[in-house]
## 1
Amino acid sequence: MKKIVFVCLGNICRSPMAEFVMKEMTDELHIESRATSSWEEGNPIHRGTQAIFRKHAIAYNQHKTSMRMTREDFLTFDLIIGMDAQNVLDLKAMAPEGTENKIVQFAEKSVPDPWYTGDFDETYSIVREGCRVWLKRIN
Ligand code: 4NP
């Protein structure tokens, strides 16, 4: 099974949103999410993102906590998807040699960070559309 990981700055807003939206769309991929930073390490999914899951009846793991990308993660995952342009730059700087080519950006435009915008609905509609595109692209 192909292994993909969504990555954002904190792993509490955008990348877990993409993880569970995409899981709702397919059982044929191994999907996880991570952070580029350790700022939120061990913290749960933001309550704004959890509210989006409940609003749209998306199943999710309430116990999932923020984890930073490890060296092992770069080796293990087949596709490493940064949610914005800065995430991609940070991932490329962290990537062990030979893994840089697995790193891509979620969409041409950076996914707005609701941590700053406060608009989880806007981010959800962009994430949902982007996941649909990725599903077609991967399958
Ligand atoms: P995320 O949002 O990268 O979409 O999870 C953020 C979460 C936390 C922080 C920044 C962005 N922070 O500064 O702690």
## 2
Amino acid sequence: MIESSEKAGQIVSEVRSEAIKLIKDGLPIIELTEFVEKSIIKKGGFPAFPCNVSINEIAAHYTSPPGDTNTIKAGDLVKLDLGAHVNGYIGDSAISVLVDGYEDKDDYPIERAEENLELIQAASDGLDAAISTVRAGISLSEIGSAVEDAITKHGFKPVANLTGHSLTQWNLHAGISVPSVKEKNGHILEEGDIIAIEPFATNGIGYVTDMPQSYIFKYLRERPLRVAHAKKVLRNIKSEFKNLPFAQRWFLDDFEVNRLHSSLRLLSQHMIIYPYNVLKEKENGIVSQKEHTVLVESDGCKILTE
Ligand code: MN
Ligand code: MN
């Protein structure tokens, strides 16, 4: 229902603005992720996925593991990516910020700050360019082309192997991938489609690669399983999150952290749940991102997470 999508978008937008104000030198990442997720619930939604806080060359899929001691530092390029759902209808949005206080750091040349700020602008221009092309009847290749042109104008590369996506009820990645680069893609958008557009810009090579860590998971399929503890964890996952991504942190009231960890590993090994690896830029380039969820209309689109 469009009302639920609109409400989810509104929640995301409000929480995003509040969360940005917290981002400063020394802030523990886990305080930011928990603030975002709790605020979404306070406003009448549920997190559609764990709040992602991905810093510098880390492009996506970092959320705090239990007991995370990592902090945000002055001069970091922080990508905050959050999602809320209302009755399974999802709003998904991301923003990038450069953390204040770098002026006082000896090892942080002003050129680096300028480049980071331009990266943030490039992702933002990529998103604007994409949004201005969207209407019923256009092909996805037109979006990819608009994004790539806007980002390369700044002298950077769009990240080719990260895409936007369609959204349907309880489904965060509902089949359509929205490109950020020029490619042949004849898929035509229809009125009423809801898509998340999320260009990433980098001063690296323009591709991301898996890191070994995974802190976000989602349920995939049923398979025979003998271990009682893992079965119990799985029942909990299916009833609470369906197919939406979740974090280990969300189970700590019900499960002891070490046993939880081994059960999640077992479920991943059996491909019952999918682990999202943390993604980093292939040549350790810095990465920026901006994202909105939009409703495709006959003559344009409506931004649901404005
Ligand atoms: Mn997102
Ligand atoms: Mn997204």
